[in-house]
Give the backbone structure.
Amino acid sequence: MSRRSAPAHGSHGIPEATVARLPVYLRALYALADRGIATVSSEELAASAGVNSAKLRKDLSHLGSYGTRGVGYDVEYLVYQVSRELGLTQDWPVVIVGAGNLGRALANYGGFASRGFRIAALLDCDSGVVGTQIARHTVRSAADIEAVVQEQAVSIGVIATPAPSAQDVCDRLVAAGVTSILNFAPIVLSVPSGVDVRKVDLSIELQILAFHAQRRALAGVPSPGEREWQERRARRTGGREPAETGPPLALGGDTGVEAQAVGT
Amino acid sequence: MSRRSAPAHGSHGIPEATVARLPVYLRALYALADRGIATVSSEELAASAGVNSAKLRKDLSHLGSYGTRGVGYDVEYLVYQVSRELGLTQDWPVVIVGAGNLGRALANYGGFASRGFRIAALLDCDSGVVGTQIARHTVRSAADIEAVVQEQAVSIGVIATPAPSAQDVCDRLVAAGVTSILNFAPIVLSVPSGVDVRKVDLSIELQILAFHAQRRALAGVPSPGEREWQERRARRTGGREPAETGPPLALGGDTGVEAQAVGT
DNA sequence: CTGACTTTGTGCAAACGTTCACAAGGGCGT
DNA sequence: ACGCCCTTGTGAACGTTTGCACAAAGTCAG
């Protein structure tokens, strides 16, 4: 999906599919660390991340041998190694273009800052928005793209504009020196080779869900595994680490360290 | 990614990878239709969608033989067939839980309605937001989840809450009868088998970009194909369908029907 | 120090996805 | 009606990803 010459792990190593899962593992590791857990087995970590444990071990083995046989992985050490591999030990200035609802949501999203992504600037071309404060940032004019990118050595750009402006913004980002782009606009961006584009399309995901929902509706509806689910839910609500002193939260469980249902 | 018993195209047909691309083709087809193009070859459509043409043909062949050899595909007919396969010819009521910036962005997103997704309700548990108007919808209390789902026969739920509430919201949606969930919260949801979950994680995409950016920075930087790019850009800006009467847009090109750079 | 037990790391085979290359098939000019 | 040319649809080769199953390697009790 927008790799240029990808022999997957031809030259240096890590398969693309693995790279895509590392952030998930990292999130699970942070959650474990927050709960004060120092060591974790591949089985447990895999459950937290919602993947098969063999897959997790193979994935981690691409980074090196950071586990201890018979014991598991040291959470803190693994956090460091995964972060390092993903390039999160350095600071990544990010410019967000488009300060509509989506741009605003992105600017306010805590998950950015906590992973080393610093918002270098929030830009918009609507003069009614330029100058306002959003999440501690003053919205600047989209005319400043080149200035911002060069001044702050930005290499990652986020496009959160309406579709018609997206290609133009993209061109300007690229011309200014940005080589990684995260595109939220529902169009296919045209970029020179050497520039990495990833897209997130809200409606595409919904359409995929609709496809499966329709499949289910047409085929016999096998009822959403009633018994099994009751059981799992009970386990999650009640049996939260017997000797654990977790404070009861007002709404909802903890930070999501349970396994995704994978079924058979 | 959260399939239950997925032999991919074991029983009825279409591989998962193909399903994930159909919405992209559909978008490209709509863009072509808007430009008044009645017929398109696999080569052109593939370019518009940013994929290999052989892949496109194989993907479409899973739906049936809707092309004409020597000619191409009829745009309108293909739009219909793809829509039908994706289940977009029916109306899908969707409930959005969480009316923060993200929920607001989703509610305002035009790409929903235009694909048959109707917002059944917008819910939040913050009493300061409940009752306000967002995109023609009055925000209702999150306590109404069960009522809304049952009254309007909602089968798709969108979770746009902060992470701590997500699992609880998910449980309630599922208990109320929702079987498809789109999750924006950065946690792995636990659901019974039979429920389909897709996740969109903004920071994960950024982390993947960071990984590649770091790779590029470490290896020799081969300069983003200067010459080739200038050429492509010129072609895009100037050579817009010679005899085409497209009105000049204030900002940016058209709806993105150009090829993604794929490189070698 | 030894031996039982646990968990990692990995060889291998099967499943899945992508791409090439071309035969089959249909339009169109003559 | 014929044959040329263009484009689809697909068989086959190749690369990637997954998951099993197990040997290697470490811990820990006695």
Summary: Residues 7-9, 15-18, 52, 54-55, 58, 68-71 of chain A lie near DNA strand D (CB under 10 Å from a C1'). Chain A touches chain B through 111 residues (CB under 8 Å). Confidence is low (pLDDT under 50) at residues 1-11, 237-264 of chain A.
